[in-house]
Amino acid sequence: MDDYLNLFVEETSFYNRVVLGTFLPESWWGPLPHWFQGWLRNYIGGVLLYFISGFLWCFYIYRLKRNVYIPKDAIPSNRAMLLQIGVAMKAMPFYCALPSLSEYMIENGWTKCFSRISDVGWLSYLIYMAVYLVVVEFGIYWMHRELHDIKPLYKYLHATHHIYNKQNTLSPFAGLAFHPLDGILQAVPHVVALFLLPVHFTTHIALLFIEAIWTANIHDCIHAKVWPVMGAGYHTIHHTTYRHNYGHYTIWMDWMFGTLRDPVEDEVKKM
């Protein structure tokens, strides 16, 4: 068992060497405890991912495709985006504690994670991943919904994010502009799922960081009309009505629990 758990440690150590070794002298991070190396690597990776994805996407939709996807009067001001960046950067050290904690639990054998796809086979891997995504979707939907329905949670946590409540205040940088505890709570289903079913470790880590790209995408106000994806068109409605479209990747949970509101139907009604 210890030999198998070492596979997880070897993998996270490899990630540490790649990320930390690229940006910092080894004499700075080498003596640090393994768990702290993991947090520092997640922090550097999270910050880079946030800024690279945010700046590239903003440059594309607000500059290269100016007035194509979003009218000029709906483009958020630089000040609004800087405020969003400030909120996200204050929360980022706390966000990175969650994947660091999940790595610690995995390395110590507390979860049902497996290291190699060959351990279960490709068919089982795909089935487990599909179930994992359903569990995460269900968990995030209800966590998000309760952050609205439980008044103290909304007032003291989620309201920080909902100051961005119209098209000209939403931007890709709003995707991680949460109260730190709010952002962690909405990501907790990713970690809970590790105790419920076998999950491939590398896939789990990748999906956590894909969250940063996904949240940037759903705050750009561009409705891609790709069924059943819960894209920005749906999420913009969430920011304006507060009572619809709590889902994350797909519309299915909102459809099942009666909170779905379709942006295309909304446009037809307005006409």
Notable features of this structure?
Fatty_acid_hydroxylase; 12 helices; 271 residues; mainly alpha; transmembrane; transmembrane helix; Sterol_Desaturase_Related
Report on the architecture of this protein.
With 271 residues, the chain is mainly alpha-helical. It has one domain (1-217). 66% of the residues lie in helices and 0% in strands. The protein contains twelve helices and no strands. It has helices spanning 2-23, 26-29, 34-64, 78-95, 97-107, 122-149, 151-156, 180-196, 201-217, 232-241, 252-257, 263-270.
Cα-atom radius of gyration: 20 Å
Biggest sheet: strands, sense, closure? Answer: none
- So what's the overall shape? globular
**Helix share of residues?**
55-70%
Uncertain runs: none
Mean pLDDT, rounded to whole units? 92
Helix and strand pattern? HHHHHHHHHHHH
How far the N terminus sits from the C terminus, by CA atoms, comes to 64 Å
> How many domains would you count in the coordinates?
1
Number of strands: 0
Structural class: mainly alpha
SS field, number of helical segments: 12
Strand content: under 5%
